Amino acid sequence: MRAFTYQRADSPAAAAQAVAATKGAKFIAGGTNLLDLVKLEIEVPTHLVDVQDLGLDTIEETDEGGLRIGTLVSNTALSAHPRVRRDYAVLTRAIQAGASGQLRNKATTGGNLLQRTRCSYFYDTNLPCNKRQPGSGCAAINGVSRQLGVIGTSDKCIATYPGDMAVAMRLLDAVVETVKSDGMTRSIPVADFHRLWGDTPHIETVLEPGELITAVTLPRPPGGRHFYHKVRDRRSYAFALVSVAAVIQPDGTGRVAFGGVAPKPWRVEAAEALLPHGAKAVVERAFADARPTRDNSFKIPLAERTLAGVIAEARS
Amino acid sequence: MEFNAPAGENLFDKARIVGKSTPRIDGPLKTTGTAPYAYERHDVAPDAAYGWIVGSAIAKGRITSMDVEDARNAPGVIAVIAAPETKPVGTSPYNHAPLFGGREVAHYHQAIACVVAETFEQARAAAHLIRTRYDREAAEYDLAELAPQAPLADGGKALHKRGDFDAAFDAAPVKIDATYHTPDESHAMMEPHATIASWKGEELTLWTSNQMINWGKEALGQILGIAPEKIRLDSPYIGGGFGGKLFIRADAVLAALASKAAQRPVKIALQRPLIFNNTTHRPATIQRVRLGATRDGRITAVGHENWSGNITGTDGEDGTAQTPKLYAGANRMTANYTATLPLPEGNAMRAPGEAAGHLAFEVAMDELAEALAMCPVELRIKNDPGAEVPGDPSKRFSERHLTRCLKEGAERFGWSKRKAKPGQVREGRWLIGMGVAGGYRGAPIQKSAAGVRLSGDGMLIVETDMTDIGTGSYTIIAQTAAETMGLPLDRVRVELGDSRYPVSSGSGGQWGAASSTAGVYAACLVLRRAIGEKLGFDGDSADFTDGAIRANGKSFALNDAGEMSADGEMTYGDFQSDYDLGTYAGHFCEVAVDAYTGETHIRRMLSVCDAGRILNPLSARSQVIGAMVMSAGAALTEELAVDRRFGYFVNHDLAGYEVPVHADIPHQDVVFLDTLDSVISPLKAKGVGELGICGPGSAVANAVYNATGVRVREYPITLDKYLDRLPAIG
């Protein structure tokens, strides 16, 4: 870990300004991911702006019948919120499928959206990684890649966005609210929030330097039955091989998003329209452009079988 | 004293303390966080500086340059020890890979530098300023590529034949021929390797975390080129070892070198991401098992070949270890080959040999049972070899109750409900299956010494360099001493892990419990005799009970002896070499496999164990359930993933190396048979800590097959390996 300076911000705009003004500055909230990366010198911030004093830790009803989730609401509090449990159960289930109780107590809503990949080569500073060190190459593409992405990847990077919460938020058409260093605010649909790697895998979201997440808004509840099936090698404290978030309506239509397969929560609206035709049709469409490695090609049939199980449960 | 004939009836046969479930006497210290582990010995070295180890970025080659100037000039830095500036340290017979010094790199994350600073954070920050350049050497890191040319192990001697295996296998009307792969595995203990080192002149003290104090002392003397008498190791509490702390590792070597350079105590813990490649691991194996039988299930041919690799081409993982012992069969062949494989060092991990061997052999038995259309429990019982060791008729079994284990386990587990045909039991989306395996682990016994001391105020103090690696040594030693001296347990204090105490067996190979308690018993007998001489009675025949001594119609109080002390050691006579000393188990498991996703959930596990007298059923049960978890991990989740281009284990942290979590293991039962083994020691007790990892994973694998009808012979059994063979969905 390299030495850095540290300040606590007292307003969202001041926090955004402080980060924008200092090269190499980053926000810190729960720190569950950032501190690990800083200790390993995968992240080398020069300055940390702590946003934990900003409030922004409440969940409020919106006029439209949805919820506005403050960026500092912990994963634990969000998953346990009565309205979330009742109307957005897929979100509760997704959050509780991730990490451990201790980590969820500390992890925040905004921070979780920014969780970085868990690719082993990203984590080992002895190995080339275009995400960690642009231009150095990708050790994963011909390496151990069982856990890595099958779609939306590039020749520069095959990492995944590893989280669970964002997969449910994508399914729910959530919107990220931000404030920029000039005080302007904007709303970014979760669908547009994470970028595909392309030639710049080190740039992971559409956030501008200093832009701070202040809240995530959920629109009105979608109804239907909610599912989050996370497939992994052990039953806790493991990242998804594949996860399926789904809301299925009584008529068999619905929404579906996949986690653990791509640089972002993977939802293809044209594919989910095929839900009444079954899992095979949905997955063939959603993964039509997949480019798996030999190690991880199983993820596509696994996605299909997992979705088939969800559909069968929805019918039962 | 020498144990030179099987034990007759003795005081342990009417024991009041030994053999009773007893909570660990160190339990409150551990549950309150007040048992100080090596890195937390603030009392012994309050002024310790902090060391941080830098690991090699390449697996094989040579350091061409190392720039340490920025690190040396960094804030708080006291010393930087760089491998290219340091003469390679010596080697000991216990380790294969070089530990430190010089420009040659033998494996990934080999220690190449150590930064010492006033604070941990300063040492870590400075370490990242070291810039190293290498000449990388190409090498073959794929065991499967190297195996065909690998020579026989043990200098060409690891080929054992009886009868005519080839002819018998060819002629057998029913046979199986299957090849299994087990991956490299890591001990993944909770407490990292850690040491505080301090020099006083030429005398070196290490507060460390080590299973084998005397081996460590001798080895460190060889490594540093100093007399072992100048070295003291102290290791009273150890947060798990599983074989990973049998030997001196880089933390101890560099703490010693760094403390000399810094001229003050230095503490070092191996960083978690270094442990997997810097230290030792269980090597991967490829195992081919061929079994032939008559149509009624009598085994006529047993063939087991094993290939593994290691950094120097010696001491790989011998999966054939249990094969000569388990089942009958007149025609046999075992062979063990070890390739030179420049991955990090392979070395002992819990039940070295047998743990991996059962994952092949006991699944092969399941495959044979199916080929015979026979119950796999019955097949094992039918091939009970009787009194002689089938692979070595020069030896007899001392005690062997595998058949009882299997029968009792089958009864308790509800084995009769198992459907022989796989894939038949369905509960909603779940495919349900049951599996069984036999288990064998050798019960080696080692000489072991202890000192015992009466304080004069009613306390008995036991001192031995025996270690408690989380196993319960403190408690069984206290039980043994209390029993022998006729004292209540709370009048015994046990001091362990200090090289100034008499040399014990240490903890390894599941020999610790049996060996160390026998040593303590020997010391207590010497003390009893000394007390008898002082007070005028025969210490051997006197009755020591409740702090009182009754002899020749007279009665004494133990306190009448005043302050006294005695040392004793138990050694073992040649008569034991006529016997095979082993422990046995019947393991059972039920799994549910998701018919859609292939996820395997263990539902329940049972192990019925035959290990002689169980000294403390409570802590013995803990040993077995922990080992069953480890075996379940070997079956389903654990694998050090090898990058075959760069030659290292990629998933080198506890997020990537997946040991089972609580949610994976819902229900476990352990049953101990009430057997005694009079050949092993006066206590008639054998270890259980490794028995529990020999077979449960095979029972898991056999249960997965019974649930799905899909046989996966490449561990761990992860869903990607059989998803395409599961029943179609629709």
From TrEMBL, chain A:
Presence of keyword Flavoprotein: yes
Organism superkingdom: Bacteria
Name of the molecule in the record: Xanthine dehydrogenase YagS FAD-binding subunit
Gene3D superfamilies: 3.30.465.10, CO dehydrogenase flavoprotein, C-terminal domain, Uridine Diphospho-n-acetylenolpyruvylglucosamine Reductase, domain 2
FAD-binding PCMH-type domain segment(s): 1-223
Record keywords: FAD, Flavoprotein
GO molecular function: FAD binding; oxidoreductase activity
PROSITE patterns found in the cross-reference section: FAD_PCMH
InterPro entries: CO_DH_flav_C (IPR005107), CO_DH_flav_C_dom_sf (IPR036683), Diverse_Substr_Oxidored (IPR051312), FAD-bd_PCMH (IPR016166), FAD-bd_PCMH-like_sf (IPR036318), FAD-bd_PCMH_sub1 (IPR016167), FAD-bd_PCMH_sub2 (IPR016169), Mopterin_DH_FAD-bd (IPR002346)
Keyword Flavoprotein attributed: yes
SMART domains noted in UniProt: CO_deh_flav_C
TrEMBL record, chain B:
SMART domains: Ald_Xan_dh_C
Molecular-function GO term, any one: iron ion binding
Origin superkingdom: Bacteria
Chain ranges of the Aldehyde oxidase/xanthine dehydrogenase a/b hammerhead domain: 32-138
UniProt xrefs under Pfam families: Ald_Xan_dh_C, MoCoBD_1, MoCoBD_2
InterPro entries: Ald_Oxase/Xan_DH_a/b, Ald_Oxase/Xan_DH_a/b_sf, Ald_Oxase/xanthine_DH-like, AldOxase/xan_DH_MoCoBD1, AldOxase/xan_DH_MoCoBD2, AldOxase/xan_DH_Mopterin-bd_sf, PaoC-like
Protein name: Xanthine dehydrogenase YagR molybdenum-binding subunit
Organism: Stakelama pacifica
The organism's taxonomic lineage, starting at the top: Bacteria, Pseudomonadati, Pseudomonadota, Alphaproteobacteria, Sphingomonadales
